[in-house]
Structures are given as structure tokens and as C-alpha cells.
Amino acid sequence: MTAPRQVSLLRDFQKQRYFAALDGIRAISVLLVMSNHLHSDYPLLRRVPGWAGVDIFCVLSGFLITTLLLREDKDFGSVRLAPFYIRRFFRIVPVFLFVLLCYFPVAYFGDHGVRWHAFKAALPLYLTFMQDFVPHEAPFSASWTLGIEEKFYFVWPILAFLLLKTLKNRALLAAAFFVVSSSLYLAFESSSDKAFFHARSYAALALGSMLACLLISRLAEAYSQWISSLPAIALVGAVILSLALVFFDRKYVLLLDLSIAIFFSHLLLVPSWARSILSSPVPVWIGKRSYSMYLIHLLIMNPIRVVIRPKSVQGELLVLVVAYAVTAGCAHLIYLWIEEPARLLGKRVIAKRQSTALQPVAILDTPS
């Protein structure tokens, strides 16, 4: 690929406001997470490290949030934190509270009420987005990633954009954030301390932030030239190989995060068959509803498992396929009745605060 062509692709990315392929990535990530929560007894399905879908979400989230902030800073000379936090609140909290309410009857009546006390004890943590410290036995503990991401949303803009003013310093902060988080995870991966185990998610968020800084830095053109020289099939293969390594040792999740970040780069900068597939209507439709799918999938998957009663690998896969489809359908209703109205309300609140406020960028205001 010639240098002028590479520059053109880089400029196209820097001007683009919506990256459909990343919604396709979300669709795959939520499928991985759901496969993990099958808790299958069959070796074939246990070999799929579905929990790594969370790390893919985190790399994506770190990239999108940091890109939003970097573009606003470049266009207007500063980042308006109040509108940012308002958008995040209306994007995340209304749906979360709705699903949390749905868990009340599940916790009270399910399993003959044995988990009700754990749920009640965890409520203060849920309501303060500290669910990354909720015990595993509590209903809705699978929402622990929201605790991680909300802390990132709150702290990262203040540190990187209120206190630091240059791209170099922001990139160095993200790199330091990645090194510290990765070191904690590698050192305490086998520990029962959730705070250290969850450090891998902060590392993934930091890696996504580093990618965002890279793609607007002076190194962006050279990086674009390098990434354009790689075939999409090689990068897909690297992601699959990383997933296989994660099955043998969870510490390889950091390698997976790196391969995902490089693959994201290729999707964003280079037209390819991978981008075409991930940008097709079905993955994009699912990806736009992936946040609600992530929150509600256990409410749907567990009853479907009871009804189907799988006794083979094929039965387990049937549970996953049916649950994925039903979850997507239910998430669509939440999307129509809660997510979109809440997002529009957030826009109105921002507009009321400041009539000249920048309208949210479409892709960068989607669920992370």
C-alpha cells in the first residue's frame, strides 16, 4: 500500500464518527461471555475461555472513551467533564437500575430464597458501582465489570484531561496505568483477592487508551503503514491463538488484549473482509444492544437451560443459541423503551445546561 494511500486511510479514520465494525466486535464479545456462563460440563465447551469477552469489551471501552475525550480536546481546546459524566450517567445507570430491580424477585424466590441475604447485603455495593467486590454467590454478581468501568470513567478523564494537558503525558499515564495493572495481575493472578484479579480489566482499559493516543500521535502514520502491511487473516489468527493460550494459562489474557488492540487498529484503518463481516447489519444490530444483553443474559439463559435440560454438547449449544436470540430480542425492547429514551434525556439535560454544547459523537456514545 503506497504512503499517500496510508495517509488517506489514517485521515479517514480521524474524521470518521462511527465505526460499525466495533459494534460487530461487541456482538462477538457478549456471545463469549454467555458461553462462559453456560458452565458446561463438556470439555469441548469448557475449552472456550468465554470470560475473556470481558477483556475485549474493556479494550474497546478504553479506546472509545479516550478517543472521544481526545477529539473533544483537539477540537475545542479542553474537555467538558460535566457533559461527559451526564452522558455516561444516562447511558449506563437507567438500564442498570432496571435490571437490578428485575433481580429482586429472582433473589427472593429463586433457589428457595437461599441467595436473598447475599443479594441484600450486596445492594449498597450495587448502588455505588462497587460490584467488583460483590461475592460471587450474590445474584447479579456478573455485573462486576460495571464497577471496574465506572471507576475508569470517573478517574481517567480527571487525571488525563483535567490535570494533564499534552498527548505525550496522557500516553505515558496510560502506559504507566497498563504496567502497574498488568504487574498486579501477573503477581497475584492466583490470589483469592478480587481486587488484584480484576487488575487485568484495568490493564485492558489502559491498553485501549494507549491505542487511542497512538492513533492521533506523530507515530500514527508509521503505525498505519505497518498495520496496513498485515493481512486480516493473520490478525484474526493471532486473536484465535491468543484465546487458545488463555485456556492453558489465564495470564496470557494480556497477550490476548494486545492482539485485540492490534486487530482493532486494522479494522479501523484498513478496508478488509473482516471489517465487512463485522459491519454487516446483523452483528451491528446486536452490538448496539450488547450492553442490555450483558446485563440480562443470566435472567434468560438459566430458565432456558432448565426448560431444555441439555444432555450433550449439542444440547448445550442449543441453550446458547436460543438464549442468545431471546436475550437479543429482550434487549431490543430495553433499547427502545429505556436506553434510547434515557440517552435522549441526557442530551436534553446537556442542552439545557449549555445551549452551545457539542452534540455527542454517535459511536463514542454507544455502550462500552
**% residues in beta strands:** under 5%
Give the biggest beta sheet: none
How many domain units?
1
Low-confidence stretches: 357-368
Average pLDDT rating: 89
Shape: globular
N/C terminus separation: 32 Å
Assembly type of the shown chains? single chain
- Compressed to H and E, one letter per element, the order equals HHHHHHHHHHHHHHHHH
Number of strands: 0
- Broad structural category: mainly alpha
Q: Helical percent range?
A: over 70%
Number of helices: 17
Radius of gyration: 20 Å
Provide key terms for this protein.
mainly alpha; disordered C terminus
Can you characterise this structure?
- This protein has 368 residues and is mainly α.
- The protein has one domain.
- The longest helix has 41 residues.
Please specify the SSE layout and strand pairing.
Layout: H1 3-15, H2 20-36, H3 43-46, H4 53-76, H5 81-109, H6 116-127, H7 144-163, H8 167-188, H9 194-197, H10 199-214, H11 220-228, H12 232-248, H13 253-269, H14 273-278, H15 281-288, H16 290-308, H17 313-353
Helix pairs in contact: 1-11, 2-4, 2-15, 2-16, 4-7, 4-10, 4-13, 5-6, 5-16, 5-17, 8-10, 10-13, 12-13, 16-17
Task: Give a quick summary of the entry.
This protein is mainly alpha-helical. The chain contains 17 helices and no strands. The chain has helices at residues 3-15, 20-36, 43-46, 53-76, 81-109, 116-127, 144-163, 167-188, 194-197, 199-214, 220-228, 232-248, 253-269, 273-278, 281-288, 290-308, 313-353.
